[in-house]
Structures are given as C-alpha cells and as structure tokens.
Write a structure and sequence with these properties.
3 helices; mainly alpha
C-alpha cells in the first residue's frame, strides 16, 4: 500500500513539474515565468522529500532545505530585478 501512495505522489509531482515547465515556457509575462520557476523549486523539494522517505536517508532532507533557501533567495533577487531595484535597496 505505501508503494502505491508513493507512486501517486510521484506522478502528481511530475504533473506539477510539467505544468510549471509549460508556464515557464509560455508565460505571457516575466512575472508568470518567475512564479513558475518558484513553484518548480518547491516541486524539487517535494521530490527530495519523497526520495528521502523512500530510501530512508535523512541527509536528502538537508539538501531539500538548502534548495528551498536558495530558491527563496533567487526568487527575491529576480523580483527585485524585475522591479528595477538594486540588491541593496
């Protein structure tokens, strides 16, 4: 039974990944693309959590936390760039 749930979550994350890639490629504005990139980072963290649960390796969660922090900082930097502000403002 847990294998079925794991596969369902994996398929769901793959569908989310596909939709994010579609939004990144087709997004009519750069803000739409930015949101797609941000959500894709969250999906990667979900993949890392699933792999950690499936393998029992807890260090993968450390990678997921680091990825989430880098994704957050990248989103803030891109938002400031799109507003036309510098990083020190």
């Amino acid at each position: 039974m847990p294998e079925v749930v794991y596969i369902l979550f994996l398929v769901g994350l793959l569908l989310c990944c596909g939709m994010c890639l579609y939004r990144i490629g087709r997004g009519p504005t750069s803000s739409d693309r930015m949101v797609g990139i941000d959500i894709l980072g969250t999906v990667v963290v979900g993949f890392a959590a699933l792999v950690s649960i499936a393998t029992g390796k807890d260090y993968i969660l450390n990678v997921a936390i680091a990825w989430a922090l880098v994704s957050f900082i990248g989103t803030i930097a891109l938002a400031k760039h799109l507003e036309g502000k510098g990083f020190n403002e």
